[in-house]
Amino acid sequence: MGTQAERDIVGTIDSEVRYKRQTGIYNPTDHDTHVTVIGLGNIGSHATLALARMGVQKFTLVDFDTVEEHNLASQAYLRRHIGMSKTEALADMVSEISDAHVTLYESAYDETIPVHDITVIAVDSMDTRYEIARMIKKHYPPISSSLLRPSAV
After folding, report:
1. For 16-68, how does the pLDDT look when each residue is reduced to its tens digit (9 = 90+)?
2. CB neighbours (10 Å) of residue 38?
3. Segment 60-95, tens digit of pLDDT
4. SS percent in the chain: helix, strand, coil, step 5
């Protein structure tokens, strides 16, 4: 893993250097984007890590589930995460990538949980996705999604 000094150097990488290859797509120094991810399975776990790698610095993660061995085949989790809540495990992985601020809700989504600039609805059930979209639209219009039929929300 390297010496303490090597680990300290890695932790002090300048964000302009770290993210210079994608600043034409998303420049974290120009944005204060807060992303809410609801459902931290296959889509939600990988989307969160991709966004952290792009430089998003604020996340709200929502899931009631724990990491199980069968999740390792398709989700972003590692063996060390088995038995942990998906929110804690994903926050652990985000912390390995960046210094993002992560807020955790170890529950199913409900209307008391705030959503932010971007919301990724990545729960397994399409019916549940529609219901969450309806709840969000009621409090935070407008909603746009490539995964939901316009008539569904």
Report:
1. 777 777 777 777 777 788 999 999 999 999 999 999 998 899 999 999 999 99
2. 24
3. 999 999 999 999 999 999 999 999 999 999 999 999
4. 40, 15, 45
Q: Which residues contact 40 (CB under 8 A, 6 or more apart)?
A: 48, 61, 62, 63, 65, 75, 86, 87, 90, 122
Q: Is 20 helix (H, G, I), strand (E, B) or coil?
A: coil
Number of other CB atoms surrounding residue 102 within 10 Å: 19
Query: Buried (b) or exposed (e) across 55-81, using 16+ Cβ within 10 A?
Result: bbbebbbbbeebbeeebeeebbbeeeb
Contact in structure between 71 and 41 (CB atoms under 8 Å): yes
Strands 58-62 and 101-105: parallel
Note the pTM of the prediction, 2 decimals.
0.82
**Cβ 153 vs Cβ 130: under 8 Å:** yes
Cβ atoms of residues 110 and 128 within 8 Å: no
